[in-house]
Amino acid sequence: MNIQTTRKRLEERQRDLEQIIRAAEEQGATDEPQTAVSGEMAGTDQHTADAAADTMEREMALSVKESTEAHLADVRRAFTRLEDGTYGRCLVCDTPIPEGRLEAKPEAEYCVQHEPAALPTEGAA
Ligand SMILES: [Zn+2]
User: Fold this and answer.
1) Cβ proximity of 16 and 22 under 8 Å
2) ∠55-40-60 over CA atoms, to 5°?
């Protein structure tokens, strides 16, 4: 595994994610109460419908922002692991994660077997 290439991959990933977060924030994904930034154009009849649409758009943007921030946290952890030499190994079984998998998902923390998404989510007592 080439550390330089990996670092670059992670940096690109980080930049992409930060852009998505910024875009989401521009769509209103902020914690601040909404102030009339985009309103007061011409028609007042449209106002209520616009406000409802704005709310929906803001909620969608907010959920995009939240999931992207979680993803960004994964990428940041990958940077840390790259520093301390544990990068590229499954957190559960310590098996090296296949290079192809790291190419597709440089922030991967698990081998295919232990990827949380691949585990049964419920009812597996
Ligand atoms: Zn594993």
Assistant:
1) no
2) 15
Quick one: which of 2, 20, 12, 25 has its CA closest to 75?
12
Between the CA of 109 and the centroid of ligand 1 the distance, in Å, is: 9
Question: 73 alpha carbon to ligand 1 midpoint, in Å?
Answer: 20
Please say whether the structural domain 3-27+54-118 has been given the CATH code 1.10.290.10: no
Element (H, E) at 57: helix 47-84
CA of 114 to the centre of ligand 1 (A): 5
**Protein residues with C-beta less than 5 angstroms from the ion ligand 1:** 90, 92-93, 111, 114
Question: What is the C-alpha separation between 117 and 97, in angstroms, rounded?
Answer: 16
List the pLDDT tens digit at each of the 125 positions of the chain: 789 999 999 999 999 999 999 999 999 888 666 555 555 555 556 688 888 888 999 999 999 999 999 999 999 999 999 999 999 999 999 999 999 999 999 999 999 899 887 555 555 44
